[in-house]
């Protein structure tokens, strides 16, 4: 049976990197002439689109101006991060490389990304971590305010671009926001306690299964119902 397996990036596949947070700060100043930071809000699990709107709203920027300048803001963020790409040290979390290697060997598996990151930043991170070749599609943080839309976008792309015709869709993430978005989209959710949240918090958020990390492939395979 074919499966679509979707992964978050930060805190799930990789350690939280430098560069992305700074990209936000640079773009606030360059595009809006304001000093701003994602630390001004609770940003865990939110899309870059939503983070940007919430920070700028807190800084008193009118919604019409935010929307009008959002394309430029996203471009500045992406260009800044890509300029830093040669200098960024991004580490894979334990078990990630082995798990991706094994999952990719199942011909009926389609691997994808669902991340709050802007697409250009997400792809740059995957390139730096040397795992971009595993993922053919995704849902990205420039596409919507709501994370659930990114899950739906990834599923649509899997069907249209990769010929995925199954109903077995899994989302693996490290925050309650990942879990809630997956549940809202009607997919099976797997919480990994490799970010800022423990197993109980992920269970409370509604995760179908929880794992301490991705080191134990047999445990991951069981959660994915892979024989």
Describe this structure in words.
The protein is α/β, with parallel strands linked by helices and 227 residues long. It has two domains: 3-16 and 91-223, Rossmann fold (3-Layer(aba) Sandwich); 20-87, Putative phosphatase, domain 2 (DNA polymerase, domain 1, Orthogonal Bundle), CATH 1.10.150.240. The chain has helices spanning 20-32, 48-58, 63-84, 96-104, 119-128, 147-161, 176-184, 199-204, 217-223, and strands spanning 3-7, 109-114, 137-139, 168-173, 188-192, 209-211. It has a six-stranded parallel beta sheet, with helices on both faces. Helix 1 (20-32) crosses helix 3, helix 2 (48-58) packs across helix 3 and helix 3 packs parallel to helix 5 (119-128). The protein starts with a strand and ends with a helix. The model has no long low-confidence stretch (mean pLDDT 95).
* Percent in strands: 5-15%
**Average residue pLDDT:** 95
Within the CATH hierarchy, at the fold level, what is the topology of the largest domain?
A: Rossmann fold
| Spatial separation of the terminal alpha carbons | 11 Å
């Amino acid at each position: 049976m074919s499966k679509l397996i979707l992964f978050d990036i930060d805190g799930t596949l990789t350690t939280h990197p430098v560069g992305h947070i700074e990209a936000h700060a640079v773009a606030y100043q360059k595009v809006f002439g304001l000093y701003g930071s994602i630390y001004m809000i609770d940003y865990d699990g939110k899309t870059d689109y939503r983070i940007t709107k919430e920070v700028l709203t807190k800084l008193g920027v009118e919604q019409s101006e935010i929307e009008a300048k959002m394309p430029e803001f996203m471009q500045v963020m992406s260009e800044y991060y890509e300029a830093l790409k040669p200098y960024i040290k991004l580490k894979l979390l334990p078990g990630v490389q082995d798990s991706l290697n094994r999952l990719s060997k199942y011909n009926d598996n389609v691997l994808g990304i669902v991340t709050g990151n802007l697409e250009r930043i997400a792809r740059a991170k995957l390139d730096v971590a040397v795992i971009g070749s595993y993922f053919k599609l995704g849902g990205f943080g420039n596409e919507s305010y709501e994370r659930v839309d990114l899950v739906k976008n990834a599923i649509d792309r899997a069907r249209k671009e990769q010929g995925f015709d199954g109903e077995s869709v899994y989302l693996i993430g490290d925050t309650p926001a990942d879990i809630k978005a997956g549940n809202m989209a009607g997919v099976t959710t797997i919480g990994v306690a490799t970010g800022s949240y423990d197993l109980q918090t992920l269970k409370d958020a509604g995760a179908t299964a929880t794992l301490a990390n991705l080191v134990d492939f047999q445990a991951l395979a069981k959660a994915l119902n892979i024989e």
